[in-house]
Design brief:
Elements (H helix, E strand, L loop, with lengths): L1 H14 L9 H30 L1 H23 L3 H27 L4 H13 L4 E3 L3 E3 L2 H18 L4 H14 L10 H6 L2
Antiparallel strand pairs: 1-2
Helix pairs in contact: 1-5, 2-6, 3-4
Length: about 190
């Protein structure tokens, strides 16, 4: 832990800047937590984008495989070929599972700054006890975690309008959806055009 304490001590003057901008002290503390949550969100989203770019081909292959097998299953239903449908649907479900869990891992890559920030908050504010009427004595994580969740949700709503993050989203959309996904409502049209 001594290594992290050295990093926290080195970053402490920078991370503390937001906590002294507003007074009274409780408002400055909340504003500093908000800025910390925003920084953690931005760093996490940039990490998400970098990991995606590094593994872009892998995600494209999984998405292409999932879409292709799903479309084959829908086409098999359109021609009433149950054997092909079952086989293609099984392959599509396996590809969906790969896609789902690879995206969970991708999302997890955006969360690494959270424990780092919680460690710094404990390093900086751990000795200060916050006494709340109902909850009793709590640490800074009590306020940071809900605030981080709110910032993360808020940022997800504006991410597409922020230049760098808009480009990441466009790249993901381009990579993940190269082929039109057929829906079961397309079956009558497909059966008609056989």
């Amino acid at each position: 832990m001594a290594g992290f304490e050295q990093i926290y001590a080195w970053l402490d003057p920078v991370l503390m800047l937001g906590f002294g901008l507003i007074s009274p002290p409780w408002a400055g503390f909340l504003f500093g937590l908000f800025l910390s949550a925003l920084v953690v969100t931005l760093v996490g989203e940039l990490t998400f984008g970098a990991v995606y770019v590094f593994n872009r081909r892998h995600y494209a292959d999984i998405s292409r495989e999932m879409t292709a097998h799903h479309n084959l299953a829908v086409r098999a239903l359109a021609v009433k070929d149950k054997t092909s449908y079952v086989a293609c649907n099984r392959l599509a479900n396996e590809a969906f599972g790969k896609n789902f869990f690879s995206h969970i891992a991708l999302f997890a890559s955006s969360l690494w700054p959270v424990p780092f920030m919680l460690g710094w908050l404990d390093y900086r504010f751990g000795p200060v006890a916050l006494n709340l009427p109902v909850a009793g004595e709590v640490g800074p994580a009590f306020a940071f975690i809900p605030l981080y969740i709110c910032v993360r949700i808020g940022f997800s709503r504006v991410r597409g309008r922020v230049p760098v993050f808009r480009q990441i989203k466009e790249m993901i959309d381009e990579t993940e959806h190269p082929e039109k996904v057929l829906h079961y409502t397309d079956i009558p049209h497909l059966a008609q055009n056989r």
